[in-house]
Amino acid sequence: MRRLPAFVAVTALAGFGLVGCSASAGTSCPSPTADPALSAAISATGDVGTAPTVNLRSPYLPTQTAVDTLVQGDGEKLTEDGQLALVNVTVMNPVTGETAIATQYGSDLTKTTSLTALEPDVPGLTAALKCAAEGSRVAVAIPGDQIPADKARGLGLAEGSPGVFVVDLRKVFLPAADGPEQFNAGTGMPSVVRAPNGQPGISFPQNDAPSDVRTETLKKGDGAVLTADSSAMIHLVGVAWGAKTTFASTWQNGAPGQATVSKLPPALASALEGQTVGSQVLLVVPADQTSADQQALKAPADKALVYVVDILGTLN
């Protein structure tokens, strides 16, 4: 049995793009509806996160996408397009009932696969998993005419063959900060507005930038507390004071970024350490303290910098 490669599931801070520039719906998002035919054809044993033993009655020839939740998890749900999820996948050949290919299983989340990285190979897989929860094991049957011919071989399938994908949702990150709004009494700070998907926009007051580092917690999440050693998954927007375009934006890149807190520029590291998953943090860094930001994030020189950071989760 061949194995699917482990994809780089996160975007390093150095990859934040130079571009211009809601709460999680988990409780209102019902789990995928089970398809009776698939439910009758498949079963799997083994814990989520370990290679399953899958029994698939063959031949099973789906004519449309079908879903069956084999194990129901209770973690964060997939509610938004582009939301980051790390998965393990076993691909079954429904013609023969045999395993075609699988990702690497184990406790190390860096060796899992990003769900969005699978989408070009298996169009419709992400949509089929909408509202599935972290900790779940979900079987998704895809008809052969929906699997690109040039991708089938890499999945261990014959051209035109359907596939059944047994997906373990190992980690589902928040799509955006989901904590409650916090009151901040500070004056002279930028204001933050948000698009429906949570993406922030920044507007500036008439005054000059503060001469010292300023931090405000705009939303306070109730998740894990970040330490210096935390491998944090974040959305970040960075803009020079008064500018109309950003110098860094994971939102515009289409994927969150990952970094160890202690390896961030000092002001960012200090602002995030002690914050909780689900929080949104506003940070202003004076122009004379941005040398590390210029190196790490290609921030402009001689400008005060403003960051808005959504803390989506951790890998450790």
Automatic annotation (TrEMBL):
Record has Isomerase as a keyword: yes
Ranges where the PPIase FKBP-type domain occurs: 229-315
EC number: 5.2.1.8
Enzyme class: isomerase
Listed name of the protein: Peptidyl-prolyl cis-trans isomerase
Domain of life, per lineage: Bacteria
Signal peptide positions on this chain: 1-25
Record field: catalytic activity: [protein]-peptidylproline (omega=180) = [protein]-peptidylproline (omega=0)
UniProt entry keywords in alphabetical sequence: Isomerase, Rotamase, Signal
Family statement: Belongs to the FKBP-type PPIase family.
Pfam families: FKBP_C
Single Gene Ontology MF annotation: peptidyl-prolyl cis-trans isomerase activity
